[in-house]
Amino acid sequence: MSEALVVFTPSGKRGRFPVGTRLLEAARKLGVDIDSVCGGRALCGRCQITVGQGSFAKHGIDSSAEHVGPFTATEERYRSRKGLIEGRRLSCQTILEGDVVIDVPPESQVHKQVVRKRAEVREIALDPSTTLHFVEVQEPDMHDPRGDFERLLEALREQWQLEGLTADLHVLQRLQKTLRKGEWKVTAAVHDRKRLVEIWPGFTDRAYGLAVDIGSTTIAAHLCDLSTGEVVASSGLMNPQIRFGEDLMSRVSYVMMNPGGEVEMTQAVREALAAVTGEVAAEAKIERDLIMEAVFVGNPVMHHLLLGIDPTELGGAPFALALDSAMNLRASDLDLDGAMNRGASIYVLPCIAGHVGADAAGVVLSETPYLRDDVSLVVDVGTNAEIVLGDRNKLLACSSPTGPAFEGAQISGGQRAAPGAIERVRIDRETLEPRFKVIGSDLWSNESGFAEATGRTGVTGICGSGIIEVLAEMFLAGIISRDGVIDGGMATRTARIEADGRTFSYVLQEGEPRIRITQTDVRAIQLAKAALYAGSKLLMEHFGVEKVDRVTLAGAFGSHIDTTYAMVLGLIPDCDLAKVQAAGNAAGTGARIALLNKQARREIERVVKRIEKIETAIEPRFQQHFVEAMAFPHKTAEYVHLTRAVALPAPKELAHDEGDGRRRRRRA
Amino acid sequence: MSEALVVFTPSGKRGRFPVGTRLLEAARKLGVDIDSVCGGRALCGRCQITVGQGSFAKHGIDSSAEHVGPFTATEERYRSRKGLIEGRRLSCQTILEGDVVIDVPPESQVHKQVVRKRAEVREIALDPSTTLHFVEVQEPDMHDPRGDFERLLEALREQWQLEGLTADLHVLQRLQKTLRKGEWKVTAAVHDRKRLVEIWPGFTDRAYGLAVDIGSTTIAAHLCDLSTGEVVASSGLMNPQIRFGEDLMSRVSYVMMNPGGEVEMTQAVREALAAVTGEVAAEAKIERDLIMEAVFVGNPVMHHLLLGIDPTELGGAPFALALDSAMNLRASDLDLDGAMNRGASIYVLPCIAGHVGADAAGVVLSETPYLRDDVSLVVDVGTNAEIVLGDRNKLLACSSPTGPAFEGAQISGGQRAAPGAIERVRIDRETLEPRFKVIGSDLWSNESGFAEATGRTGVTGICGSGIIEVLAEMFLAGIISRDGVIDGGMATRTARIEADGRTFSYVLQEGEPRIRITQTDVRAIQLAKAALYAGSKLLMEHFGVEKVDRVTLAGAFGSHIDTTYAMVLGLIPDCDLAKVQAAGNAAGTGARIALLNKQARREIERVVKRIEKIETAIEPRFQQHFVEAMAFPHKTAEYVHLTRAVALPAPKELAHDEGDGRRRRRRA
Fold first, then answer.
1. Which of A265, B52, B210, B481 could disulfide-pair with B294, CB 3.0 to 4.6 Å?
2. Which of B103-107, B537-541, B634-638 has the highest mean pLDDT?
3. Alpha-carbon distance B575 to B546, whole Å?
4. What's the start-to-end Cα distance of chain A, in Å?
5. Which residues in chain B (328-347) have CB-CB distances under 8 A to chain A?
6. Inter-chain residue contact A145 with B615, CB threshold 8 Å
7. Local confidence band at A663 (pLDDT 50, 70, 90 cut-offs)
């Protein structure tokens, strides 16, 4: 039997095979990364290749002929049914006839890259935990007493090299009917190459996964196609636990005051997860049964309540987590077997410490400070700020009790980010007159058509990013002093400064509602930003750096604030402004990475183990940094530069994370 | 540091250790088999030893002194609390002070033998899947952000060498409260050294397991103490599926006629299992929560219905099992998490073929034909007979459709074995007058006091063993011919022979109820015994033997029939009568072995894989053997010997399996 040389590009893998070998088989034997769900039956079209043209002298092939078999009738059928780009072949149908160079296009690779929009983060290689495998199973006969399951296992072993699989009972319960309905051709879903979790009659190549960030306030879910990595639907809804308390500690208190209260809250969050799953499935027009994976992140209290664990211990020193390891569960463990496929696997990212949760682990996985040479500071602001600092050699983490002021809570005119909330503010340095923009409108308040643009909602209050901007603008306009006092003397220049007992307020909007910035509001933001800054400073001190190379602001708050203003107010340490960026819902992105790439799970588990945790509550230096950080920053050279930068151009559009547009759109 | 030699008996393992070493530690390091649940804290008392006295010259120890530390206050406390045999020490408290010989008594060995009553079967070494481990866990503090679970894992790793454990979610949900309640001392139950399935505050050393044989008619359960292997309670109840059909095929038909009927039957059998579990727990006066393991066996239809699998495919050729592999499940998979500990593990033995189930696998595990040099025939008679033949080199199995006649069904006066049923019959060779015994009474019907002894029940019918005996006696008395015809000519000798249309009957009891043996009854038993015999013969032919060395009759029927009569009627092939024995509920015993010894699970899985299955339905020779076996045996020399043996002595008492007394007592 004569042999021929085949060279696969871009891998460069090469080998000699008997003439007549199918190219998919040759690729498999060489370990070339070519996708296939149907196992070489011309059904899935995943294994497409291009046969090289021209001279291949550099590959040691002395021929320009196309040394493969002709386009087959099977390929023609596939082309007419599903379409095939000119020049493409199905490698499972293409026969080796002589020396040849074969190009494997990116979309035919098993571990194809999922494109992320932000340049500074790495691509995700597609390698999900649950994989699909089409097989033909031997029919039973009287001479072979083996069970149908054992014959299915044999097919998976012989056709897909899957060894020693176990099966979920629900699969075995439907196995015989499914095999017969599919006429002994079925598609199996296998988790982690170990566990048979679903079986469908005939061929199918659709499977989906869900990545969810369970925040104290909102639950954000992305539904991803596990074969492309694309987000096919996103949705967010309020965390229904809010009725038990606005912030984390009030929910922990609820459990302390109402023994068994954790059961109610667990039920509430799981029902919300079921609801949001239904929502994204409906939006993507898929059956919930096709959702085979889910990955969850959340802060430690959300993490514990999701798992049905009483979070009481997180409410007081020593803030002991019930567990910090990553969890591999089944949908039924979380009562989610009705919301997705019964065989769906759940992965929960590890927690880092009692106040630094699986959400922070998600942020770390998304932003990968552990892969960088430069020193990154990654800050995820919620009711607690979770802060990670480090580089490829060392990582530190802490949490800092910022309180809910950044989210608009405990601010006189404050509200959550939602249509109608003021999010951008400018104050004229001379007249001290303000103008602002609200969420849901592109117009400034002094532009014509503003009232119409805000529509029925009107202006309802001010959200976190608006508060940051108004305070920074008040400071830059001289209305607030460095130590945070609203200057009553300015009342002579504008009627917007008004007395408020023994302190003063700035009136941002007259009318309904009347929105003022009070001295109490300024103090609340000062406390929050001092806590945030002190946490960062503490980590820098432990790490041994005076300055960080890069600052990443994660989370909704980080996405909506203008980073320039954040630095004006001193929320974050000094850093080259070009290296300060918003990462959007990085926790959610981390969940999505863990969903699409099972190696990423092992990676974050390893990284989390080596993160050094700093407990702010027992660090005397934290208090000192906190007190020092109450004032607004000194007029250093950089600060002057900043004020100038702010005064001149219109506010830049903020970079959003991939999923952010959808999330924002649906925030209402 | 000086060292001393320690020799452990009976293992003979020896080694030198520093003076001051605790003997339990020395034993561990040498791999000496000493039990411990508390991990050396003088709580469990499992690690008792005896310090050798006298001269140990043969061990190379030139001293007769007792070279160990003195009896400690801790041991004294243990003795006063729980008792300690004179001369015994706790090895965890005994200090090595010089060369010494230490005896480990059998009850201190981890893998102690569980004594079985029958001499011909091997002992069971105690080695259950779920083990208990007492640990002290490090308390959390602010400098150690690890979760409580991770600190528990560390304790299990350091104190018990348990690596890489995962945990059931329900354990994690209660972990923090349990650790605090136990003041950081807890007992963990670990399944297969892999999965943490339960945790109790403080020290406990009690855990139980359940072995259940799910028969078509009865469910027999044994509750075992996992630390001693003892059966602490047994119970049997009717399989409630009987309301869907008396025999297997009628239940399969029920599903065929009532789609979804398998769901009802699954629910019925699982509810019965929960009920029987409650019954044995109550009898043993233990909490259900202490039941950590269950093992189930059953024929293929029962096996499938237990697992929630539609048995329809078992109702017709090619009789395809949904699966034949052994199953490792959790209690919740079978809705049994309320009936036992939530973390309890379930093991279901493998099936052999479409008509040879996990019950047959249990029989094989109990009777171990695969360990013998001689050729054994093992027969488990139910509605189908499951037959295994072979030796250490080769095993064959088949099932044979005996029908329910042996169980008293489809016999005119027949009934299930229960008080009031005739089980022993003798017919006077001259007068042709019968006498009989009923279940629940020790008197013959012609003895005085018989009527009183049968009590309120009276004589209700005739069960399987009674039918065998009456037919054999009728044959021996000449009432039935070799080809099974009741001889009407005998009516001249006794009024008990009466015409019945064109055939004749023998009246066993006048009165209420009138019990007759009709020609149809004889035919039914002939068909059943021919099927049984033909199955055995077919296997012998495939194996290549003319004669078997040993016959074991398993199951209730096998326990109750007199093996001599079984051979008179030709139910089983010729064999030395001394080598024909009843094994009682061997399927249940197999379940108990798999419960107490996890290696036995691997063993039966391996053995089942190499059993060669013979499908009687497609073997033309089976029909031939069947036809030939319809008649009663020839008067060979052996047969004459048999008839003589039967005619003379009173029926011998039958050997029963260990659990059988209880089962029989409760059969009512």
1. B210
2. B537-541
3. 11
4. 69
5. 328-329, 333
6. yes
7. very low
**Percent of chain B clearing pLDDT 70 (strictly above):** 92
- Tell me if A132 sits within 8 A of A188, measured CB to CB: yes
Q: pTM higher than 0.80 for the full model? A: yes
Q: Which residue has the tokens 């004229």?
A: A428
Exposed e or buried b per residue across A473-493, where buried means at least 16 C-beta atoms within 10 angstroms of its C-beta: bbbbbebbeeebebebebeee
Q: Is residue A119's pLDDT more than 70?
A: no
Instruction: Check CB contact of B455 with chain A, cutoff 8 Å.
Output: no
pLDDT in tens, A461-478: 999 899 999 999 999 899
ipTM reported for the complex, 2 dp: 0.86
Structure tokens at B99: 């060369």
A612 CA to chain B: closest CA distance, Å? 9
Structure tokens, A125:
């290689």
For an interface test with A, the pick among B137, B138, B142, B166 (most A C-beta atoms closer than 10 Å) comes out as: B142
What is the structure's pLDDT at A667? Answer: 35
125-164 of B, contacting A, C-beta below 8 A: 140-150
What are the residues facing B425 on neighbouring strands? B436
Of B146, B323, B613, nearest to A324 by CB-CB distance is B146
| CB contact (8 A) between residue B617 and residue A320 | no
Residue B56: which pLDDT band, with cuts at 50, 70 and 90?
low
Tokens 């910090």, residue?
A324
Residues of A in contact with B147 (CB under 8 A): 320-325, 351
Interface list for A 295-324 with B (CB within 8 A)? 307-310, 312-313, 317-324
Q: Say whether A313 and B352 touch across the interface (CB within 8 A).
A: no
Are the CB atoms for A52 and A100 separated by under 8 Å?
Answer: yes
Measured CA to CA, the distance from residue B114 to residue B599 in angstroms comes to: 15
* Alpha-carbon torsion, ordered B105, B107, B113, B116, to 10 deg: 120
Per residue in A121-135, pLDDT (tens digit) is 778 899 999 999 999
* A48/A488 Cα distance (integer angstroms): 73
Question: Which burial class, exposed, middle or buried, applies to A1 when counting CB atoms under 10 A from its CB (0-12, 13-18, 19+)?
Answer: exposed
Length of chain B: 668
